[in-house]
Amino acid sequence: MSASPVDTAREHLTEALASLRAACGPGATADDLVAVLAVSEEARRALDRIMVDTTADLQRRGTFGERGYRSPAGALSDLLGWERLEARRRVVAAESVCETVDLGGQVLPARMPATAAAFADGSASLRHVDVIARVLNSEVAARLDPETWAGAEVQLAAQCPAFTPTQLYAWGMELVELLDQDGPQPDDDAPVQINEVRLTRFRKGPGGKITGRYDDAVLFAAIAAVLDAGAAPRDADDERPVPQRQAEALADACAQVLQRGNLPETGGRRPQLVVTVRLEDLERRAAAASLEFGGALSAATLRQLACDAAVVPMVLSSTGVPLDVGRVSRTVPDGLRRAVTVRDGGCAFPGCDRQPSWCEVHHVREWQHGGATELGNLVMLCAEHHRLIHHTHWEVRMANGLPEFIPPSWIDRSRAPRRRPAAHVA
């Protein structure tokens, strides 16, 4: 059987690298060694371009989403063993210097065409591309009109051969600030005193939208304090945008309040999360369900929700008539949760350092398949990695009393188990 194009390319690349290494042998002159450095940098930039182009192609095809990843950076991190910062850098470059496809299927040109050309000919490195994207995504650059913005992008790309990435960032910020001489528009209107929050459920899909405004400084400060505490980056490589971190922090805070039951009664009952299941779906082992607020649930999401939550299962007939409303039951008692916390110390997924207070407890062997609610069948996971276990081909199992995670075969063909390093005990 003939070798695949990738296997053939790997063979040629191995030969080329061997030749380059041989050029550094004992007989090499100083000029030879300097030339090897220059050629190595050319090769590195060429490989970066290939990786960015490939990442963009996978994004256009929707491959990462099909395999259960919300974020391409998360998929690249797991696949290639990169830190999230490095993965995010490739994703930003792919979105900036490669063609994209809009929701209608139309191919759109690169957002930063001059930078794309510099990246293609090797005069701009991956770090240069990342810096230009940061400058042009800044609040100052966002105030520029499209023509001025495009002109700034051309100037930034032209300076790549002369500046290091750090120098280019400083120069680029000075440039866009100079182009935005007027600054933000002043607001001379007297503010209207409003304190309100609006919840709007999406009619054509799950989820919804929350909008709000607080002119009362005390109320706003209380909310801001909660979001600030929960929205801090998880680590130095957490590249989630601030709005995303704040949105997830708000949801996590609400989930904690629901778990602890520190809410007033509503209509004569404690606040509860109601999951509605049709009778025929229940008979098919809960193929689908819907939330009281927020739309439909898949079976996988329903199983994830049931891992560690107080849930009221409401069974409906085929005509929508309630047939049964179950009792509230807590799947994982507080004492057992504390034991899991002591063992795992937070999210047990390798590379995650989410604190226990922001984590959920997952049944390794699912409850509906006979899994027991006991320490040897429970693992602590943050919301992101809990979803990953339920919705992708990642698996978790217990080995010698500790959780370990098995990646999908497309990430690691050998599917070698991964485990968070144990804390060193002196």
Automatic annotation (TrEMBL):
Coiled-coil portions: none
TM spans (from-to): none
InterPro entries recorded: DUF222, HNH, HNH_nuc
SMART domains tied to this protein: HNHc (SM00507)
All residue ranges annotated as the HNH nuclease domain in the record: 335-387
Family: Belongs to the Rv1128c/1148c/1588c/1702c/1945/3466 family.
Listed name of the protein: DUF222 domain-containing protein
Protein source organism: Pseudonocardia benzenivorans
